[in-house]
Amino acid sequence: MNSASAQPAARKRLLVVSPCRDEGAHCERSLGSVAKQTVRPDLWIVVDDGSTDATPRILDAFAHEHDFVRIVRRDNRGSRSVGPGVIDAFYAGLAHAELEDFEFVCKLDLDLDLPPHYFERLMAEFDSDPRLGSCSGKPFYRDAHGRTHDEWCSDEVVVGMTKLYRTECFREIGGFVREVMWDGIDSHRSRMLGWKARSLRDPGLRFEHLRPMGSSQDGLLTGRKRHGFGQYYMGTSLPFLLASALVRLAQPPRVTGSLAMVWGYVSSWLQGLPRHQDAEFRTFLRRYQTSALLRGKRRTIRALEAERESLWLRNHPASR
After folding, report:
1. pLDDT above 60 for 6
2. Which residue among 11, 57, 147, 241 is least crowded, i.e. fewest CB within 10 A of its CB?
3. Residues spanned by the domain of 303
4. Measured between alpha carbons, how far is 25 from 14 in angstroms, rounded to an integer?
């Protein structure tokens, strides 16, 4: 055996970009959990999006101790902005890296506590399936009494607070849309192009979300109404939205949360607000949703992945 063939394969490079604003209550745990990863980012760009609390001081101290961390500062725009504001901050960080130098790119929030093998195990999932374009673990949170609860997260969608992408897939889908529901559009668009996207039900990938998903700077009900608008913008059909609202009755705040989600959708429709401009995407999404209502999500996803395999192979002939 020659010496070249005996060498282990080079580890694929990982870029992580973390938009944050006023995360002083949570970011030390998040920073520490990434520092303890068995596979750490090759470059971690943290974008301080105008924080007014202790976040800048905490970030500076952490970056001083870890040479793979780079801090990017943005001016204070006056308030936290979910959806487009978060993605604007993400791209402000991405502008400080050469994306082509990395095989993987991750958008990671700073209100998470990740298990130590998180990145290592997700990257192993990519190695095992060349069609896997994006994946994540599943989040949970603790209530005021310290009890743990799983957050709502369908298997076919990669959670927004930690999206790990194969860079090739991220480029092909055009990156993230700068609008509410960006974190649903990207997974469906990946599938439309033949990639696979999923959040994995693996206890070893379960991570703690230190701020409940779907909450808002103005409260959970505002977050649910915003989610309803996001579903409208994405192109979701009304029957699918109503079915989702029924399922959400199991998640607090139960009745009021589901009603707020429906009102967010209906009020957007009554106002004639714009929707995602890609008509082909909206057609694909509604076809998926109709099938999911009739056949279930798992059967629908399996059928779509089988149907789109030939498209993916045409676009990636080296993988044959």
Report:
1. no
2. 147
3. 220-314
4. 27
Q: CA 222 to CA 244: how far, in whole Å?
A: 17
Same domain assignment for residues 105 and 128: yes
Q: Which of 35-49, 191-205, 215-229, 291-305 has the lowest mean pLDDT?
A: 215-229
The answer on 99 and 231 residing in a single domain is: no
- Nearest Cα neighbor of 170 from 127, 128, 133 is 133
Amino acid at position 169, single letter: C
- 169 and 294 both lie in a single domain: no
Specify if 320 maps to a domain.
Answer: no
19, β-bridge pairs: 47
* Share above pLDDT 70 across residues of the chain, in percent, rounded to a whole number: 93
CATH number at residue 141: 3.90.550.10
Could you tell me if 42 and 99 lie in one domain?
yes
**Calpha distance 48→20 (Å, rounded):** 5
Cis check: omega of the bond before 115, within 30 degrees of 0 = no
Cα separation, 277 vs 254, whole angstroms: 32
